[in-house]
Write a structure and sequence with these properties.
The chain is α+β, with helices and mostly antiparallel strands. The protein contains two helices and four strands, in the order E-H-E-E-H-E. It is globular, with a radius of gyration of 10 Å.
């Protein structure tokens, strides 16, 4: 499983890196979130899914 952020949709609210910093971080140049290109560790999956569910604009996909 990996995380994906649709940068077009992201409004840069900053929630996902605060919920799951292991996977999500802010791109300081665009002000949008990006997902690290790594396999999500089992012990991080729940946090990543929380971020997916709580993103206000549904910009996150975990797949
Ligand atoms: Fe953007 Fe949603 Fe994260 S708006 S900063 S992808 S919680």
């Amino acid at each position: 499983m990996k995380g994906f952020v649709d940068e077009e949709t992201c409004i840069g609210c900053g929630l996902c890196p605060s919920i799951c910093p292991e996977i999500f971080e802010m791109n300081n140049e665009t002000g949008k979130a990006i997902a690290k290109d790594i396999e999500i560790p089992d012990n991080t999956l729940e946090d990543a899914r929380d971020a997916e569910e709580q993103c206000p604009v549904e910009a996150i996909d975990i797949k």
